[in-house]
Amino acid sequence: MAPLETHDAIISGAGPVGLFLAAELALAKCSVLVLEKAEDPHSPLKRLPFGMRGLSAPTIEALYRRGLLDQLEIHRQIKNPHSNAVKGARRQAGHFAGIPFHDGDIDPSQWRYRLPSSTETSLVSEMAELEAVLARRAQALGVEIRRGLAVTGFHRTEDGVTVQARDSSFKAQWLVGCDGSRSVVRKLAGFEFAGTEPEFTGYTTRIDLVDPEKLKPGRNLTATGMYLQSQPGYVLIQDFDGGAFHGAEKPITLEHVQEVLRRVSNTDVTISALHVAATWTDRARQATSYRNGRVLLAGDAAHIHSPLGGQGLNLGLGDAMNLGWKLAATIRKQAPEGLLDSYYSERYPIGAMVLDWSRAQVAIMKLDPHARALYAIVRDLINTRDGASYFAGRVWGVSTRYELAFDHPLVGYSVPNFEFDDGARIGELMHRGQGILLDFASNASLKTVASESGGRLEYVSRNAKDRLGLSEAGPCTRTPIRPGHRPRAGTTRSSSRSSPGACSRSRSSSICHSGAVDTTRLFVAKSASPSTRRRPGLPSPTGVNTLAAPTTCGAAGPPGASGGAPTGTA
């Protein structure tokens, strides 16, 4: 019998999440096979207007930090996707349960660590465009994508997974399910998928109308539901039937769509042709664990919720960015103990918050008087400056933060896009996914640390036009960044029994732990007491500075630091 084809990782699903994860692993020199059920990646539901997706700030930053943002074109053509778009202060910048918030009401000064050199807070793209860009990226890095070949089973061993796909078998160290809401990998691996049942059935349709003037444009909340006409003939319907029709899996006929549309819109509108139709619900579920042995979950395989607000894609891409460098470090045997488990501890709370955000929107859109009363109160709040800023921060992901055990105000946030005196920006140095030690003070001992990392940590000594007070706060002038792009600044406890000049350890991650560096978060280097605990086997700088635990403020590092993520934000 011929030996099985072997890879470091097999990913089930060639959607944006699976492709992004594959590219992150390949960037770290891991061999990756992607298995995709569909033979043809093209679908009208992935194209505008159905395939339109809003990209949040963390997603935009991740694409920028990998040199992919410039490959997206649709955001240059569509600046404001909202119906009846206006310019200026009353430009709609987003919505919560259909209640708009406007540019002029948002106070960006509340995000004090977001620099003028930052990328956009939100952009428009489409599923087809994203998949095409990410597929090219993955294949250019050596990822093999096999379409029309779905995972049908797998067998776990102590050192790997044997995966079956039709009549073919493959072996890998790890299997990652990125195969969507009905994930085969999740079901076969026995993950618990806990959550809440739906309140409505949603319909996505492209129809021809005999009397189109009977439907209003834009989003319309009615006494019996909601309908949204983004452009003539493209109609989304929300019918509060408890998800009954979607669950029944009945054919979606012209007659049924017409009956639902008439009831929800309270008109006698007539449909002459039904071209495209799909249903969905607001069922909200989340895997209680993202790892089961050598099987992992990401994206919709790990969590599902209503598409209201369009946060599902961004949530999944955040999973991929966070998991990619950690899994790569584990594959390359450069990961400290517990690093891979931090994928769940960091991403699960973010997913839970998004599910609750979705549930809250559904709750105030329901048809009973209590929900309508709440809707009115939220509408009043969202029209205030603080209210609009809060909702914008949540919708755009600007306020996304990992809860880490450090007290620096930048800990857990995305690394600010520092601009240097020569005009270059920190995000432009992250394309390789390598760890970066950003030193504002040209400290020779820190340069030594980087030089002893075996090429896994890049030392950058430059002055930033705006250091966000890092230098003014005392000796904090150096910052490490995880591959996932979130800094973690903090102090570390010292011990009088320790030797001087060592890399200090944090409960979450150190920039020089066994050669694994977190390039997602910012690590701030602080000056330590003369007696700083030394860890065996780690390079020791000659000065009194120690590299403190990662924050989200100042340096970028490659995959593998304990408790962090890759360069950028993850």
Main attributes of the structure:
570 residues; alpha+beta; eight-stranded mixed beta sheet; five-stranded antiparallel beta sheet; 24% strand; globular; disordered C terminus
Description:
The chain has 570 residues and is α+β, with helices and mostly antiparallel strands. Helix content is 25%, strand content 24%. It contains twelve helices and 25 strands. The strands form six sheets. Strands 1, 2, 7, 8, 9, 10, 18 and 19 form an eight-stranded mixed sheet that branches. Strands 13-14-15-12-16 form a five-stranded antiparallel sheet. A hairpin with a 2-residue loop joins β13 and β14. α1 packs parallel to α8 and α8 packs antiparallel against α9. The protein is globular and about 75 Å long. It starts with a strand and ends in a 20-residue tail after the last strand. The C terminus is likely disordered.
